[in-house]
Amino acid sequence: MLNISAQDVKNPAAVRETESAKGLRASGMFAGFSRPRPWVMIVFLILSVFSGCQEANHYYAEDSAFGRRLPDRFRFQRQANPQEVDLSRLSGATGSSQMIGVGDVLEIQLAAGLNESDQSTTAARVQQDGTINLPDIGLVNVAGVEAQAAEALIRAEAVRQDLYRNPTVTVSITFQKKNRVQVLGAVKNQGTYELPPNTSDVVSALAAAGGLKENAGQYIEVRDPSGRLRSPESDFVGDAEIPATNVSATKEETGLVTSYRIDLIDAAKSGEGRYLVPDGGIVMVEQRDPAPIFVQGLVKTPNRYDVPIGKDLRLLDAISLAGGMSNQLADKIFVIRQEPGKQEPLLIQISYRRAKRSSDANIRLGPGDVVSVEHTPGTVFMDALNIIRFGVTGSTTLF
Q: 158 by DSSP, 3-state: which?
């Protein structure tokens, strides 16, 4: 504590002398002087500026005696890359494209003998319940099977009703109904595509659109404007099972699902589920457009730089993008990171030399990060020497 006597009050200069100055005087640094020299005060000012202060949001990339280590919750994890996903694991067993489906038109030829009167040809459309209605025979369920299996079903029904003993049945698909599916977002060719109902899934839709673009995200949303998707109360969407861990669905008040969202990474890892797209459905592929990073301070090319999608960008990578250090003694770096929902950003202090040797110090950067290479007394000293040398020799650098 600073003690002020009555004699000191009469001498304002004594009052202005700080405790630190008294300590330095006692140590002998100011021996022979009545008060600190200006150059000493300048040194103290520089040291105070570059020492900084430890605030609540100030962390160190590594364990440090000077402050707290950056918690793991503030560190970016490795980016997921949808380009590395095995999309074939999402297709599921949706069946052959030659499988008979609702809306298909079939031609059925039935022959009970060699005479023309014993032969008949009938055209039939597969109804919503999956059946066709044949003369004399009646309703036969043929949806979900191929033509050869449908022939066996019709023959068996004719024999069961004792209409024919051993008829010859031929089934051919004259018109196959297609699902019209619109694919939008981060795909190579956006547009509307026709897919067979039995293979009308997310993978087929992406393949028809030429695959994912480089800026594709890991989420895909399937929408049905007509709201015909079933409620996922039992983990079902449409006619196919959707694991609840990989999909989230949006329901209307009627309980019908109007959309569901897939995490490509998780879904590919599990390899479960059939992600069907209904007729008139829309497949929306997330498009990632991350904010750039900014590199400033003692680098050769301060600027903003894009964050590569699906790849890690670490501190040393950012310094390299900016052309490297502009001062050989530069070592102190601040990464300024805005935490979502917070007004005050995080301040992460890193040693450049330590980042070259430690992955903990060479932290991953994320969208919006600001990398600032700071001045220190050493860099200020080198810049001063360079200025002096430039004034004397005309050279721009000291080394």
A: helix
CATH number of the CATH domain containing 332: 3.10.560
One domain, residues 169 and 117: yes
Predicted TM-score (pTM) of the model is 0.60
282 & 316 share domain: no
- The string of DSSP letters for 319-360 reads HHHTTSBSSTT--EEEEEEPPTT-SSPEEEEEEHHHHTT-TT
**Token code pair at residue 16:** 């202005």
Q: In total, how many domains does the chain have?
A: 3
Contacts of 224 (CB under 8 A, 6+ apart): 257, 258, 259, 278, 280, 281, 282
Q: What is the pLDDT of residues 135-165, one digit of tens each?
A: 989 999 998 889 999 999 999 999 998 888 8
Rounded distance, CA 352 to CA 335, Å?
12
Sign of the CA dihedral running 156, 160, 164, 165: positive
- Residues 256, 352, single domain; the answer is no
Burial of 19 (0-12, 13-18, 19+ CB in 10 A): exposed
What pLDDT, on the 0 to 100 scale, is given for residue 116? 61
Listed in sequence order, the DSSP H helices in 83-229 are 147-160, 202-208
